[in-house]
Specification:
Elements (H helix, E strand, L loop, with lengths): L8 E5 L5 H10 L5 E5 L11 H17 L4 E4 L2 H6 L1 H8 L3 E2 L2 H11 L4 E6 L1 H6 L1 H9 L4 E6 L3 H7 L5 H16 L4 E5 L7 H8 L4 E4 H16 L11 E5 L3 H12 L6 E3 L4
Parallel strand pairs: 1-2, 1-3, 2-9, 3-4, 5-6, 5-7, 7-8, 9-10
Helix pairs in contact: 1-11, 2-4, 5-7, 5-11, 9-10
């Protein structure tokens, strides 16, 4: 086995939401080693300027490279929307963001070419999903909506709370008027609130989890580049944050779907 194959996949996010991508990765690729970095000291990235997000993304990428990863997964829609090129240039490794896989999955799922996208302000303002979808299908109509309150609701663990249902209905009602048949969950926090979102848009609307679509793309890239880890040993997973590791571990288990073990705080990039 080439030593490069046993190197970890590096995953980063502005905070905790990217653990939904790690959850999807570990389900699909159970023997891959993973290093995760959540920039909890500077979360959220969504409301920040593109220039600042690009600076943060460069630092996040540098940290993962220092951990000797074999590829980088940007588990943050905001970074994927405005700084994918920064990470590609910085790492010179295979890089997978969440936008293109999510767009591909939505384009395949839609029957009526009417696709909704929900996400942070930065993701929605970038029009990255709409652009990616229209590159695949010029006939597709894309309807976008910011849903900033979904992030704190997910972190609070209010998956089935009345308040979450009310907020979801308020945010998503305009999309139901557009008769969408597919909805991209364009923020890695949103799968936690899947039930409330599905209820608000109705059972006929297909929800696309960009994290699951990203895991599929990672598997494809590993296969194509000959980087898949052939080991069947218990994988090694490391979690790093820039602030408050105890809180990250407590909330993170909800996103990851399993116990996390030790979370280390990074004091400098």
């Amino acid at each position: 086995m080439s030593s490069i194959n046993s190197k970890p996949i590096g995953v980063f996010d502005s905070g905790i939401g990217g653990l939904t991508v790690v959850h999807a990765l570990t389900k699909l690729l159970p023997h891959e080693n993973v290093v995760y970095f959540g920039d909890t000291a500077r979360v959220p990235y969504g409301p920040k300027s593109a220039q600042v997000v690009r600076e943060y993304a460069a630092q996040d990428a540098d940290f993962l490279v220092s951990k000797d990863v074999k590829m980088v997964v940007i588990a943050c829609n905001t970074v994927s929307a405005v700084a994918l090129d920064v990470v590609q240039k910085r790492t010179r490794l295979p890089v997978v963001g969440v936008i293109q896989p999510g767009a591909d999955a939505a384009e395949k799922a839609t029957m009526k070419n009417r696709i909704g996208v929900i996400g942070t302000r930065a993701t929605i303002n970038s029009n990255a999903y709409a652009h990616a979808i229209r590159q695949l299908n010029a006939k597709a109509e894309v309807f976008s909506r910011e849903c900033p309150l979904f992030v704190p609701l997910a972190e609070e663990g209010w998956m089935d709370h009345k308040a979450t249902e009310l907020v979801a209905r308020e945010y998503l009602f305009p999309l139901t008027l557009e008769h969408i048949d597919t909805l991209i969950l364009g923020c890695t926090h949103y799968p936690i609130l899947r039930n409330a979102i599905q209820s608000a848009v109705g059972e006929r609307v297909t929800l696309v989890d960009s994290g699951e679509a990203t895991a599929d793309e990672v598997a494809r890239v590993l296969q194509k580049e000959g980087l898949k880890n052939p080991s069947t040993l218990q994988p090694h997973r490391q979690f790093y944050v820039s602030d408050i590791p105890a809180k990250f571990a407590e909330i993170g288990e909800r996103f990851l779907g399993e116990k996390m073990g030790r979370v280390e705080k990074v004091t400098a990039f």
